[in-house]
Design brief:
The protein is mainly β. It contains two helices and 17 strands. The chain is 5% helix and 49% strand. The strands form two sheets. It has a 14-stranded antiparallel beta barrel with strand order 1-2-3-4-5-6-7-10-12-13-14-15-16-17. Strands 8-9 form a two-stranded antiparallel sheet. It is globular. The chain starts with a helix and ends in a 13-residue tail after the last strand.
């Protein structure tokens, strides 16, 4: 059974009827840039994020995902010197003054880079892309950003590590046990509307549909890479002077999925600029708990544990995800992102 499960997982991820060909992220609320290039350059500083995700621990061949993202504003000259941009003695930078003094950012550009490696069983996907966005003020309190990213993905299938039992190391869907690679272009685009109270985002990843085969034999089954569409929205409000809450929702549309529309519901509660806790529910898949800490104005850390309610529940010990963030060249002293979460 342990040898069959990795094969099922691989078919689930890369087959023509796969539920989602892009990685799952529990803590995307900490880094919506990983889903939407329109966030490129949204903050006052260079935002660097590093993440590792170990999904379905205990199952051989389960997905393991790691990424590095970095993006920075270009031509962003509006200096925030109120309590909404850095912590003043006796003031809460996420209290009522945040809403009272919030102003939209001046028009500016953003540039970024994302690197993602996602391994599932004997399949591996390495992606690298550069991004650009333009942020425009619609009114004194609201910005609209539009962005795109372009790069490539390297898809790999290592047949030498396959074991279907009986001493046969050859995948029936592949002629030999050799390692095979395919390079494909990768394109994404998105929009992001944001102000002090809410954000609304639309994005598309893997915009170029492509057929992928790891064998030259025409009789073998081809997989197809299909576009992934994302819509997200969140609203931030005060529970007290020291505590604010951010409920949010993510909708995903994947045409090749049996459940074409999937959704995640999230709630993040933050105490001042210091730490936060949250929860997430993924429809028909599981739920998660999250906790995070801001260390001064240069470093933040987020951890999530996810429990699956799918048929894999009896075989796995859950999913762990860690996100580490660095606020580089943070001249304005932001102790946490002011425009996203």
């Amino acid at each position: 059974m342990k040898r069959i499960i990795p094969f099922i997982i691989c078919v689930f991820y890369f087959g023509a009827a796969s539920a989602q060909q892009r990685p799952h992220y529990t803590q995307y609320i900490l880094n919506n840039y990983i889903l939407n290039p329109a966030l490129t350059g949204i903050e006052n500083y260079t935002d660097l994020k590093i993440s590792g995700r170990d999904q379905w621990v205990g199952i051989q061949g389960a997905p393991k995902t790691a990424y590095l993202t970095i993006h920075t504003p270009i031509g962003k000259k509006d200096v925030k010197t109120t309590a909404t941009s850095f912590q003043l003695p006796g003031a809460n930078p996420r209290g009522a003054s945040y809403w009272e003094n919030y102003t939209a950012s001046e028009a500016h550009h953003g540039a970024g880079l994302s690197i993602v490696n996602d391994r599932t069983g004997n399949y591996n996907r390495f992606s690298a892309a550069v991004s650009y966005a333009y942020h425009l003020g619609l009114n004194p309190r609201t910005n609209l950003a539009a962005g795109f990213s372009g790069g490539f993905s390297k898809l790999g299938r290592n047949g030498t590590k396959t074991d279907f039992g009986g001493g046969n190391p050859i995948d029936p869907a592949q002629e030999t046990g050799n390692e095979t690679r395919r390079f494909v272009p990768d394109l994404a685009a998105g929009l992001w509307l944001y102000n002090a109270d809410y954000f609304i985002g639309l994005s598309a990843q893997q915009m170029i549909p492509q057929k992928i085969s790891f064998t030259e034999a025409a009789a073998n089954v081809e997989s197809k890479l299909v576009p992934h569409l994302f819509a997200t929205a969140g609203y931030r409000f005060l529970l007290s002077e020291d505590i604010n809450a951010l409920p949010s929702l993510l909708l995903k549309y994947v045409s090749a999925s049996e459940e074409k529309v999937q959704f995640d519901a999230n709630l993040k509660v933050q105490y001042r600029d210091l730490f936060w806790m949250g929860g997430s529910y993924r429809f028909k898949d599981g739920f998660a708990g999250m906790i995070g800490l801001n260390v001064g104005n240069t470093f933040n850390l987020g951890y999530a544990y996810e429990h699956t309610t799918s048929e894999l529940n009896g075989y796995t010990n859950g999913t762990h995800e860690l996100v580490i963030g660095f606020l580089i060249n943070n001249r304005y002293g932001d102790t946490c992102p002011r425009n996203v979460w």
